[in-house]
Amino acid sequence: MSLAKPDALDITNKQKIALALGIIGLFILALALFNTNFPNKGIFLSLSLGLISVGTIFYSREAYLNKLEGIKNDGQWFKSVSSRGVWGWTLGVVLTTFYIVLYFYPKYLGLGSAKDLSDNSGLISLFDPLSQLLSGRNASQWFVYGTLYTIAILAFGYKFILKYRHNRYQQIRTISVMFFQLGFAFLIPEFMYVMNNDLPYYDLKSVWPLNYYIFDEWSVKGFLSNGNIGLALIVFGILSIFVITPILTYKFGKRWYCSWVCGCGGLAETAGDSFRHLSSKKRSAWRIERWLIHTVLVFSVVMTTAMVYTYLGYKSNDFWLTRGVFISLVIAFLTIIFVGVMYFKRQELGKDAKYGAMGFFVTIALLLIMHFTGTTEQLFFVKASSLRSTYGIYIGSIFSGVIGTGFYPILGSRAWCRFGCPMAAILGFQQRLFSKFRITTNGGQCISCGNCSNSCEMGIDVRHYAQKGENIVRSSCVGCGICSAVCPRGVLKLENDSMKGRINPTEVLLGNDVDLMKLLNNK
Amino acid sequence: MEHIVIIGNGISGVTLARHIRKLSDKKITIISAETEYFFSRTALMYVYMGHMKFEHTQPYENWFWQKNRINLKKGYVKHVETKSKTLQFADGDILQYDKLVIATGSKPNKFGWPGQDLDGVMGMYHKQDLENLEKHAPNNKVCERAVIVGGGLIGIELAEMLNSRSIPVTFLVRESSFWNGVLPEGESEMINRHIRNHHIDLRLSTNLKEIKSDENGKVKSVIIEETGEEIACNVVGLTAGVSPNIDFLKDSDIETGRGVKVNRFLETNIPDVYAIGDCAEQHEAIGNRRPIEAVWYTGRMMGETLAQTICGNRLKYNPGHWFNSAKFMDIEYQTYGWVFGSKGRPDNEVHFHWKHDDDTKCITVAFDKNTNTFLGINTFGIRMRHEVFDKWLTEKRDVDYVMKHLSIANFDPEFYSRYESEILRAYTNQLQTV
Predict the structure, then answer these.
(1) Global pTM value
(2) Class of domain B3-107+243-310
């Protein structure tokens, strides 16, 4: 038997070469970071990004293509990098540091201080040629970040497609996130700038409240001062959250966004895939999750309302939308949703209804306090602009970036999506109450093995439902489909079906005495 | 308060305890010598393969037991004294019960092979077996080859486990084709090929003669019965089936055969003593089922049923349509209703078999040749809906109906290729040629 053996724990020689290529690519970036002034930046940038991509692709092909199609999780809890070992922590620290520098000290990355960034140096100047090519301006730290982010999604997306090459759902979904990242988040905004350089940066797929700055004064003014195209964009932004999102979530569940379109989700599903199993499945984590994510949602609603509020006038002379009208509209809208849900869906909410009511009344109270105590300068007795910057720093930067991505190797790949993203909270609320989506459990076939729970990046204890023969209808489920893929007994299926009977708690599972099932399940 | 004592913390015992708690306020104690907390035995393989950690195989968090007032006791019951309703433990402890449930599961079969108790010989059933395997086969330097004896579900899982650590495996199967006591020919042969595609040295129609020891009492090699060939190895996995784990009842008054003898109410010959799960043996088999059913699902169903009886609603164990599932390396298998292999197949049962060209998907549909009634389906590499087949079996649909409506039963993930029309074409063609 002279057959090549699949090797789970050691990497092959070809993989070592691939790894070396990737490291050389990263090393070029590191040299640039430490101010090596490369003679021909375009060539070195291409070389660096090329080596990183080729290294990842080559490594993945070697890892998966010489094995039979199937689930490839061998050794994921043994490898240091994917089991919170030394390499995992090291990677976490490196990523976290990178995010802190990126958000708060971009000058250390070489960001120039001139308005046109003509004095870029270091890492950022390495990316100038690419930025010039795409939009005719020098690179900012966000361009560098966006490029690396896109490369990560594309290269690791390729890896993911090979890993799940027996699974069409995973492949198509991954092509989708790769497409939306490359097109919508990376290229289109650059081209939009070329066409009209006064327009604010707008990633069309980034919906409020994930895109928390879209209704900022500078952003709205930017759109409104740019004629019809600007107006169309801001109308699209409003329609996205109030019309498009609810329709798609009703039909497909929140997965249409979170694991098919979203950039944060895209990174988690591709580069973050090796860390998905690290999310905590404990009930205690679920409790923290529910408090935290809904607090962020309340914060983001209040903050956005406050932001819009500050640049509206008191009198209707200039514009019909005054502060008074606006705050009334917001409160009326929230109240309609609240009353509607309580009237039609009280039963389904169960014990959560109390918390929902709390969230609602806190929001309304905050808005009223704001309205009656606010002045032109101050809201909640602090400077209005500092409210917005607090949100930007703590939620927009630290939570979503530093913790959300920097902590991939510690908290799993979806810490931000799970604990912080206000968009996920809104979509999840809808998914729980008004959606055809569920993960169907296949009768009595579950063996409680736990592969599903283990691989859930959102920390859902999928097995808890599956072993009771109950469908999984959870607000946090992003519909990645990995639970279904890893199930060894074919128990789980993501599907859109009718609303009726999608939540089906059972006492006795299919396969037992029909009379006993009738006795206990039809109570 | 009535004290219900359950020996065994597997799926049967734990299901029973959970349901008793839902129905009543009785005092419940679960005893286990194996582990402190319930874990999913079927998931042990994933711990060795590094897909999960052991704690992930535990379906309930540790706080669950106290919250539901289910007492857990770790200990080995040495003797059951039914007259005084007392359990005696190996460490000298004693425990009184009002009602006793034996749910001790199985143990791996050993057929008296020379060398079967050597260091490095193990089953793959208990948590201790996993620890033992980790010790003797941590990697392919310490374990240069492993030999597995017995071609059933546990054997192929053990092969997959060792394969995940690049340990070469020789797989001795007594039958002429893998698991063909259960699987029809076409399926069994497809699995043979799949095993070999994973670079496993599958030896069919091959028996173990003896296991040889080195000077330290450790496995050195095995000898093949048929050829006398000696195969050097460091680990021998004995996976030739399981049998009820009831040795501790030998000198009690509880009637035993191969397992603990129970009637349809899961009651033993002694009042207030019951047995469920792998270790229970029906006096008479129920339908096509075997008197001893060592299957996860049946253990669970017995637990669900017995909880009713113990809580005052005396109920027969009356399982519905047979179903089961497994995974052979990368190929998932599900079965609904009855599909027999060549052994023990009733005369009236005939099969339609379809296999995909890629050699990883196939189905076998069994039906009655006289009445055309659909009897059951085996499906490999295509997931099917339990609910749909359960309904069709209850409605006694004929096979034509099932073949025409197969797409309703499909449970594969979205965007997967569908094969119903190809299957139907093959079915129609076959009918015309017969």
Answers:
(1) 0.94
(2) alpha beta
- What phi and psi, each to the nearest 5 degrees, are found at residue B72? -115, 130
Q: Which positions in chain A touch B51 (Cβ < 8 Å)? A: 71, 73-74, 76-77, 451, 454, 486
Tell whether A237 is covered by a domain. no
CA atoms of A259 and A269, how far apart (whole Å): 7
Interface of A with B in 189-208 (CB under 8 A): none
Distance CA A308, CA A310 (A): 6
Give B16 or A307, the one with higher predicted confidence.
Answer: B16
Q: B93 to chain A, minimum CA–CA distance in Å?
A: 32
Q: What is the spatial distance between Cα B274 and Cα B82, in angstroms, rounded to a whole number?
A: 12
Q: Report the complex ipTM.
A: 0.95
For the record, the structure tokens of A483 come out as: 């639970």
Mind telling me how many Å the CA of B252 is from chain A's nearest CA?
31
The answer to whether B397 faces chain A, any CB pair under 8 Å, is no
> CATH assignment of B121-240, given 3.20.20.70, 1.10.357.10, 3.50.50.60, 3.40.50.620?
3.50.50.60
* Residue for token pair 């922590």: A89
**A289 occurs within a structural domain:** yes
**Number of domains present in the structure of chain A:** 3
Domain B323-433 sits in CATH 3.50.50.60: yes
B359 CB within 8 Å of a chain A CB: no
Tell me which chain A residues have a C-beta less than 8 angstroms from the C-beta of B146: none
Q: Is A86 on the interface with B (CB under 8 A)?
A: no
For chain B, residues with pLDDT lower than 50 are none
* pLDDT of A401 above 60: yes
Question: Three-state DSSP class for B229?
Answer: coil
Question: φ and ψ at A196, to 5 degrees?
Answer: -150, 100
CB contact under 8 A, A454 and B52: yes
Contacts A277 to B, Cβ<8 Å: 52
Nearest CA in chain A to B42: A449
Per the DSSP assignment, residues forming a β-bridge with B84 are: none
Which among A300, A328, A192, A166 is positioned nearest to A241, based on CA atoms?
A: A300
Residue numbers in A near B415 (CB within 8 A):
168-169, 172
Angle, nearest 10°, between helix axes A422-433 and A245-252?
50
For β-strands B99-102 and B208-213, DSSP reports them as: unpaired
Residues 6+ apart with CB under 8 A from B413: A167, A168, A169, A481, A484, A485, A493, A494
Band the pLDDT of A15: cuts 50, 70, 90.
very high
Backbone phi and psi for residue B13, each to the nearest 5 degrees, phi listed first: -65, -40
pLDDT at A37: 83
Using an 8 Å CB-CB cutoff, list chain A residues near B20. Answer: none
- List the beta bridge partners of residue A512: A510
Which 8-state DSSP code applies to residue B292?
A: S
